[in-house]
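Your task:
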Amino acid sequence: MTTPRKLHIKSYGCQMNVYDAQRMVDTLAGEGFVETANAEDADLVILNTCHIREKASEKVYSELGRLRVAKDEAARQGREMKIAVAGCVAQAEGAEIIHRAPTVDIVVGPQSYHHLPQLLKRAKENGRALETEFPVEDKFGFLPQPKPDAIRSRGISAFVTVQEGCDKFCTFCVVPYTRGAEVSRPVTKIIDDVTKLTENGVREITLIGQNVNAYHGDGPDGRVWPLGKLLQRLAEIPGVARLRYSTSHPRDVDDSLIAAHRDLPELMPFVHLPVQSGADRVLAAMNRKHTADDYRRVIDRFRAARQDIAFSSDFIVGFPGETEEEFRATLALVTQIGYAAAYSFKYSPRPGTPAAEMRETVSAAEMDERLGRLQELIDSQQSAFNRVAIGTTVDVLFERTARKEGQIVGRTAYLQPAHVMASPDIIGQVLPVRIDSLERYSLIGELAASAPSSNLQMIIGA
């Protein structure tokens, strides 16, 4: 009987990379690999990289330096360790990775990881293997389905990729260059994936894509389906308790998506809708193709359809040429919208993007100061949003045991962690919880016998 080989995957960045890492595990299971949490014990280590944030490449090379030591130690023990770099840094830098880090055996882009078994063989025969071209075939047609045991081990929530790539070409973003053009998966393939997940205990499905609401997949009726219609169909699958999707673009919010939020109790009233800036000149320089007022009108459409809806967003501070007045326009937009959560970052140039060539930069000191002011405002809104839950009863989907003995943790419709003292038997169930207190960003409560109250007039700024 062949001894299983050990696989360790470290993922950086977005939800798509988490999903991709799981599919790599599924792909390599057929080659006799099993996961290990310890890189030093692994026969194959994969760094599944992200190129969106600042110093992404440097983080990868730093990690490769540590892995070189582990690889040398494995060799001294008479064991071979292979190292692969996958994901968007692999796509962007290609052969340069092997040149800078000769310890790397395989470099593979995010559209080609279904070729990992062949790349392992090629690396064994030739010493190295590199694949960063966009393949002609759709990788999803070649990826094996996860085994039931693997699905159950990953918990009651799962990501399902429905769309990849982006055609928007925001001037700060590398996604169109590393993930390619927008491509949507056929509806029937997504239904098959979700059905298999729910048959094995998954209760919450998050549809993911670089620009997920640009989804335009071929439907079983021969027509192209938008995201809203896809969500309506998925809500009909037995076992689906909750549906989510991420990440969206304001320009691709159509009537079918608004209707889905109005009509589907399974679709959670929490939308991640990045805006990046509240200043029209900055938005134009970013090539966002919408104004601040366009964004406000999209928010209004969601709120008209469902009063309890809440939002999160992304913001970039210090985009080239951003003035103090333009930054204050961002603060004004945040104040007007009112967010349950948001992510904010200082601008950092991505090589090869148009914004990287812009010379009218904002100083590091100004960026630090502006980011501090923005995050203080966002944190105050998130705290206020969470405090409103105290004294109300909310639905919680319970996910796992918590660190505190006897405590079970789940999430509300707004992804707030909620803790109760209860039996692990409640994991996988959606149950009403009376919220008693707040500890940092977590809600603390107890199981309630009554149905949830309509507590969601807690839209800050609405």
Q: What stands out?
A: Residues 364-388 form the longest helix (25 residues). The radius of gyration is 23 Å. The CA atoms of residues 218 and 224 lie 5 Å apart.
